[in-house]
Amino acid sequence: MRLALLGCGTVGGEVVRLLHEQATDLAARIGAPLEIAGIAVRRVGRDRGNLPVDPALFTTDPLGLIKRDDVDVVVEVVGGIEPARSWLVEALRAGKSVVTANKALLAEDGATLHDAAAEGGADLYYEAAVAGAIPLLRPLRESLHGDRINRVTGIVNGTTNFILSAMDATGAGFAEALEEATELGYAEADPTADVEGFDAAAKAAILASLAFHTRVTAADVHREGITEVTAADVASAKAMGCTIKLLCIAARGVDAAGRETVSVRVHPAMIPLTHPLASVGDAFNAVFVEAEAAGQLMFYGRGAGGAPTASAVLGDVVAVARNRLAGARAASESAYADLSVRPMGEALTRYHISLDVADRPGVLESVAGVFARHEVSIATVRQGPAGGGPAGRGSEAELVIVTHVAPDAALAATVRELRGLEIVRSVASVLRVEGGA
Ligand code: NDP
Ligand code: HSE
Question: Is residue 388 helix, strand or coil?
Fold first, then answer.
């Protein structure tokens, strides 16, 4: 069994190392030796440390490598949309199985890859694309295929989880925690894709597609990052017995006409410390799946890094190699449900709102009136001195309001109206609340 490796960076280098170290076991598990036919990179002469590989295998011609007759499996760990998409379409149409970690491509245009796989009768596996080492996509696309998944809630970005965990532990602001993440090598030089939620949104689209048998793209995902989360928000969450996490949430729902829908969103949210995701710290990932018959399932582990991601890649390589030797193919994409994706305004959420208000008679009634006008039901109200300290600021008070579940558009309109009230000095913090706090 011969494979073409496209990319030999953080992940690809570890794939090479593991292929070398585990060669005997892999051959036994597959039923044939696994050999590297070639490795496509951008710079052949780059120093790659002591990689256990023949330097003559490196090439700058990925297409030429893919087209070779002696290549059975193509492993893509380059990333990005093009030229990766063209390479993989070429491979799949030619009947060569593909293993990829490319979440950006799968979330933007997975349909093209799945169609090419069907056309060529080839396998398309991508376990490493979501949550690194954690076996998650295989359970969704195989083990849970007899069940009905209602909701998937996950922490799928390690960089932002590291930053939020640091803010929670030390009281640091976002900028300070990002600096620490960069120094420790968690955040990339350009952290935009992580901190603005693009990386998590791509993973959310892939998870939702598998969980709900529906094609969901990154463009369908409502996305908010963590750059606006403040130390005050973290303190507010703590006061409520909660912590703040960047969550990806994919859930079934029903629209006004009674049709089944899905909503897929990525945003920071408060979750109670008793929620299983609250204890997921550092750069770890975890995904909480709620299914009709199976109940609640939790998947936890390392979501990034060369070796953990290479572990997932190699698991896929063994699966597709065994399929090829058996002359078989895994089940193709399941997108039969074709549910429509609900706009964020219709998603049902809860808000935690912290207001600095004038401390005089009638203020609570005016504030409550705004919620009533937007048909948002208040769950709890807590009043304390403004400014956080016990002495407060005399004529001002802090109001902390937690709502019941309501459409996100109604909650957002409530906050907009509150900001315009003369008695509201400032809206100190607005956070969504998930998980039953
Ligand atoms: P790196 O940037 O470390 O490596 C990219 C590799 O692709 C390099 O070897 C580079 O060549 C090669 N490459 C880039 N452009 C071309 C090109 N035009 N032609 C041929 N080769 C090219 O990326 P990672 O290993 O971190 O990530 C790879 C994939 O895995 C991405 O899709 C990423 O999203 C995904 N992933 C990564 C994780 C991680 O923790 N790093 C976790 C989960 C998924 P050269 O070496 O010569 O520069
Ligand atoms: N940048 C990603 C993270 C890498 O921080 O989780 C894994 O996909």
Answer: coil
Of all protein residues, whose CA lies closest to atom 8 belonging to ligand 2? Answer: 304
- Asked if residue 227 and residue 205 are part of one domain, the reply reads yes
Ligand nearest the Cα atom of residue 103: 1
Cα-trace Rg, the chain: 24
- Under 8 Å between Cβ of 284 and 161: yes
Q: Kindly state the average pLDDT of the residues 391-414.
A: 88
Question: How many domains in the chain?
Answer: 3
Active-site annotation, residues: 203
Query: Is the predicted pLDDT of residue 424 greater than 70, yes or no?
Result: yes
For residues 351 and 224, membership in a common domain is answered with no
Ligand 2 pocket test target in 178, 199, 245, 285 with most atoms within 8 Å of CB: 199
Q: In the chain, pLDDT over 90 holds for what percent of residues? A: 92
Q: Where are the beta strands (DSSP E) in 117-276?
A: 124-125, 149-155, 222-223, 242-254, 260-272
Domain enclosing residue 26, as ranges = 2-132+306-326
pLDDT in tens, 13-72: 999 999 999 999 999 999 999 999 999 999 999 999 999 999 999 999 999 999 999 999
Cα 76 to middle of ligand 1, angstroms: 8
Q: Which ligand 2 atom is at minimum distance from the Cα of 186?
A: 5
Residue range 394-401: mean pLDDT, rounded: 88
Rounded-to-integer distance, Cα 192 and Cα 174, Å: 13
User: Using a 6 Å cutoff on CB, does residue 404 contact ligand 1?
Assistant: no
pTM for the whole structure: 0.95
- Are 19 and 107 found together in one domain? yes
Ligand 2 pocket check for 76: Cβ under 6 Å: no
